[in-house]
Amino acid sequence: MSTEHEIRYAVGQREVKGYDTQELRDAFLADKLMQEGKIYWIYSHYERFMVGSAVPTNTPLKLETLDDQLKMDFFTARREVGVINVGGTGTITVGDTVYELAREEALYIGMGNEHVEFASNDASQPAKFYLNSAPAHHAYPCKKVGKDDANVLELGSPETCNERKINQLLINTVVDTCQLQMGLTRLAPGSVWNTMPAHQHDRRNEVYFYFDIAEGQAVSHFMGEPKETRHIFVANEQAVLSPPWSIHCGCGTANYAFIWGMAGENLDYDDMDKFPPNELR
Fold this sequence. Notes:
By secondary structure, the chain is mainly beta. 4% of the residues lie in helices and 45% in strands.
């Protein structure tokens, strides 16, 4: 099959306090992304958010509905999809329109687009389409967002090891969406801490997808309640699902990049409750 999926049910704070390492990874780590020749999804019960990937090689991959989960005739019947390419150049065909995405370019696919197909320009260097999806209530137009179209924030400093550039790609100041927001953050050489101070937002979930982690390196992703934190070691091209009650931040053994995606109550990027390092436990 060219499409696979699994389900992750919502887990509360009390349950997580008793989890061992493997239970924590089973609940929150997405470690099967970027399988060549497949579309892969995790259907999460946090905000009905879906995390996935599409890596077409010699033949295109069609975005198919999940009969047992979505119970809709086609995938975007009641959903919107955000795509960011982290591989070679590829194309996404939506209806009769073909969008070419180079590395680190994005595409918003609105509700109601029945035909969506992913392809790579060169099968030996395939596109790696990272996918997020959320329920939608309105059909907004599809829109490609290139690097020059992003809203860019430069935050942090070398002194605190968190100098980074945040590329806000699919947010409400750049493209109209129902609730989905996505962007790409890249840390400068010598910086390893992302998203500091750590934060949570009880009004939505968030997922971090880590990539460009050098061979032999890793990122320790921190989650949990601010006074009851846990960590998950993450390898290249893996993601961590963050419940609304959890903080999310990470520290790598070298610099790296990550894609953040979220959905929920509002579209206010700055709606977060921050916890400085000296308040974490």
